[in-house]
Design goal:
Elements: H1 3-12, H2 16-46, H3 48-51, H4 57-86, H5 89-92, H6 98-146
């Protein structure tokens, strides 16, 4: 049984209250990521000159490009989560709408997969950026010690 099947079985039986709590958690985590990206941008700006060094320029360019892409993706995900949360009423309105309720659960399952994937990629990107900045800082420190 693969991870998607387990996730689907879990989501199928999840209560509207639990979906609400998960949605709030997603929104909070994605909002934090968006704020964190401001810090990453400032970090990149602080080391722009060093990041353009020919030895690491290509790696820097790829990481900075990925950060820009992640910034756009987080805004889209936040909008999806907000729209999903706004549609929660379908699950709790005491009106039997099996097709719409199934569609809501399916959307929730899709968001689980999409957000987990995004957060995994984002953490990897952040780690790569920190490694690159660490490398730049060590190089700068060596230069200062030699002078």
């Amino acid at each position: 049984m693969n991870a998607q099947q387990r996730t689907y079985k879990y989501i199928k039986w999840i209560s509207p209250q639990e979906m609400h709590e998960v949605s709030l958690s997603w929104f909070s985590e994605l909002s934090f990521v968006r704020d964190e990206q401001l810090f990453l941008n400032d970090l990149v700006k602080s080391y722009t000159l060093q990041l353009t060094d020919t030895d690491i320029f290509e790696q820097s360019r790829r990481i900075i490009s990925a950060i820009s892409k992640a910034e756009k993706e987080v805004v889209v995900l936040l909008k999806k989560v907000q729209a999903h949360e706004n549609q929660l009423e379908i699950m709790v309105d005491d009106i039997d709408q099996p097709k719409m309720e199934k569609a809501y659960r399916d959307t929730h399952r899709d968001l689980v997969t999409e957000i987990e994937g995004y957060l995994h990629e984002y953490r990897s990107l952040k780690s790569n950026l920190f490694q690159l900045i660490t490398q730049v800082m060590k190089k700068e420190k060596r230069k200062r010690l030699l002078n």
